[in-house]
Specification:
Elements: E1 2-9, H1 15-21, E2 29-33, H2 35-38, H3 41-50, E3 56-60, H4 62-71, E4 76-81, H5 84-92, E5 99-104, E6 112-115, E7 118-120, H6 122-135, E8 138-141, E9 150-151
Helix pairs in contact: 4-5
Length: about 150
């Protein structure tokens, strides 16, 4: 399975994804990685309603997503991950991509702002640096395909 876009976005499926990213990537399937959404029928239905019908949608917790991404059909997909914890769990299980797009993370006390809508703790920055060094994956900040891409690490 080829991951065309691997994006961290705590909002998951929303206007920027549907109107901004989907028209620019050649995918027919979106994989959402969220522990909360995977266990909520309501969230799953809301996300399905937010996507145009021509896109298939799969929603998994991190471990199940990793298994699907490693064993699934050979096609191009977009992966939306709710948080860094889920991303790192998938990476530890062998999921990889050339680049991780950090589009939006939740603000919490003690986190520093790195870009529009991107807030990271010192621990998260340290983990991102470690993953970038050990895997060669680029971590970039980019809100929309028309936005400048800023390499974080």
């Amino acid at each position: 399975m080829e991951i065309t876009l691997l994006r961290i976005d705590s909002r998951l499926i929303h206007g920027q994804v549907v109107q901004g990213w989907l028209p620019t990537v050649s995918v027919k399937e979106i994989v959402v990685v969220s522990e909360t959404a995977a266990s909520s029928k309501l969230m799953s239905k809301m996300m399905r309603m937010s996507l145009p019908q021509e896109y298939s949608l799969r929603i998994f917790a991190a471990e199940d997503a990793a298994k699907y991404l490693k064993e699934g059909p050979a096609q191009k997909i977009m992966v939306l991950v709710e948080d860094l914890k889920s991303l790192f769990a998938m990476m530890d299980l062998g999921v990889s991509a050339k680049e991780v797009n950090i589009g939006n993370t939740k603000y919490e006390d003690g986190k520093k702002q790195y870009g529009q809508g991107v807030f990271l703790s010192e621990e998260e920055v340290s983990l991102i640096k470690q993953k970038a060094r050990s895997t060669g994956i680029s971590f970039v900040l980019r809100t929309l395909p028309t936005s400048l891409s800023t390499r974080l690490f």
